[in-house]
Design goal:
It contains 20 helices and 7 strands. It is α+β, with helices and mostly antiparallel strands. The strands form 2 sheets. It has a 4-stranded mixed sheet. Strands 3-2-7 form a 3-stranded antiparallel sheet. The protein is elongated and about 75 Å long. The structure holds iron/sulfur cluster. Iron/sulfur cluster binds next to helix 12 and helix 15.
Length: about 425
């Protein structure tokens, strides 16, 4: 029986002579992933995949050194951030925090600053918590899937990726990329958003991971999903495993994987304010300690789409004197469950806020520096603001990527002065 050939480890012969014959004999699989036939079929995958990976893999900074700390940091960064954004952030992060100890001892403000541009800042906090636990418990990162899995911020995928890449343990690492590749290879109609789908895919991969190249296999599968078997239209003509792919053969690949239970994201309209002082500082405030972007700095913003007049009134009611306004471009930021659709308004203040606001200390006199007495009570609403120069934004204060478009607008205003109003344009999601 052909499957016995695979199980007996003679994949070479099968691949070179009989993969097309196999495809003729096997009907597309339906339903759940882990079937003996599917495992047998996938047993043919490692050899051509690894051979392609050896020739075509991208040169990425985290592939130069498979030290467990480095692999772990890169995998956490890559969880929800594009490779291009991670490249720069990874090098910066490692240059300042090169090992578990330095990460465990880093001040939070520095940690947030180093994470800037990569989003999902709770990952950085979990990274630090996990570093402290790992150091205190094992003196380093453990060579065990279960122990890695017990650390904050490490789920099944990351535990499998770190275990295989850093320690050579033949553990599966299944994320959305891998689910997509498997669904296409097997022409499976399994809903990959169902919670059980990942476990089923792990069961499918576990027996076929080459014991001597577990880390490369993990990375090769991910690389295939990132470069060739991409979402939407896969590049089947360039695929090293197309001869094994049932989805390709059936012409169904571009419609896979099936995602039935995907919920639409909630859209929130927001108005973002650049409150700019005559000395070129911008107002920042802290977000609540729980929820979206917990504890991060943000540009002040309000729900809804406010006109410039409404925005002006809002801040004048809080005791600020607005000299001039400027409309800023629209921007969209996509979180996992929410989309922020933003408009922006720059408000150029007539007077410098009192010094105690810049220092975050409200107990000094409100009347100093000409701020009007009758506005004192209203100013209390603004007491949470701090004022940051462009240099402080660049070196100390981390602003989440959601505000990237408005941070850029602030940079342009500081460097070139207030501009003519922006034409209507929709900035790409950031
Ligand atoms: S042949 Fe096409 S669908 Fe199949 S694995 Fe390759 S890129 Fe993906």
């Amino acid at each position: 029986m052909k499957y016995d050939i695979v199980k007996n480890g003679r994949e070479d012969a099968l691949l070179s002579a009989a993969s097309s014959e196999l495809q003729e004999d096997i009907q597309p699989f339906e339903g759940k992933f882990p079937k003996a036939e599917q495992v047998a079929w996938l047993g043919c995958l490692p050899r051509p995949l690894l051979s392609w990976y050896d020739k075509e893999k991208r040169i990425l900074p985290w592939r130069e050194n498979t030290d467990p700390y480095r692999v772990w940091v890169s995998e956490i960064m890559l969880q929800q951030t594009r490779v291009e954004a991670v490249k720069e952030g990874y090098v910066r992060f490692l240059s300042v925090l090169p090992d578990l100890k330095s990460l465990a001892e880093a001040p939070e403000e520095l940690l947030m600053k180093l994470w800037e541009g990569m989003g999902y800042y709770s990952r950085a906090r979990n990274l630090q918590k996990a570093a402290r636990i790992a150091l205190a418990t094992w003196g380093g990162l453990p060579a065990s899937v279960e122990k890695l899995r017990s650390l904050p911020g490490i789920g099944d995928y990351t535990a499998g990726a770190v275990a295989s890449i850093a320690f050579g343990i033949p553990a599966p690492a299944v994320d959305g990329n891998v689910l997509r590749v498997l669904a296409r290879l097997l022409n499976s109609s399994r809903d990959v958003l169902e919670p059980a789908a990942k476990k089923e895919a792990e069961a499918l991969l576990r027996p076929i991971i080459p014991k001597d190249r577990a880390g490369d296999f993990t990375q090769a599968l991910m690389e295939l999903g990132a470069l060739i078997c991409v979402p939407g239209s896969p590049r089947c003509e360039a695929c090293p495993v197309s001869s094994l792919c049932l989805g390709f053969k059936a012409g169904t690949a571009s419609g896979l994987p099936v995602k039935k239970s995907k919920k639409a994201r909630r859209v929130e309209e927001r108005t973002v304010f650049l409150l700019i002082t005559p000395r070129g500082k911008v107002a920042l405030e802290k977000r609540p300690s729980k929820g979206l972007l917990a504890g991060m700095w943000q540009l002040p913003n309000a729900e809804g789409r406010l006109s410039r007049e409404q925005g002006c009134r809002l801040w004048e009611e809080k005791g600020f004197f607005v000299e001039q306004t400027q409309k800023l471009p629209r921007a969209v930021h996509i979180f996992s469950h929410i989309e922020w659709h933003m408009i922006g308004i720059a408000l150029f203040l007539r007077e410098e806020p009192p010094a105690e606001k810049a220092d975050g200390d409200r107990r000094q006199s409100d009347a100093q520096r000409g701020w009007r007495e009758e506005k004192k009570l209203r100013q209390s609403e603004s007491a949470t603001l701090v004022w940051a120069s462009l240099e402080e934004l660049r070196t100390e204060k981390a602003l989440p990527a959601a505000f990237r478009a408005y941070r850029k607008a602030f940079e342009e205003i500081v460097e070139k002065g207030p501009a003519e109003d922006e034409p209507e344009q929709l900035m790409l999601p950031v």
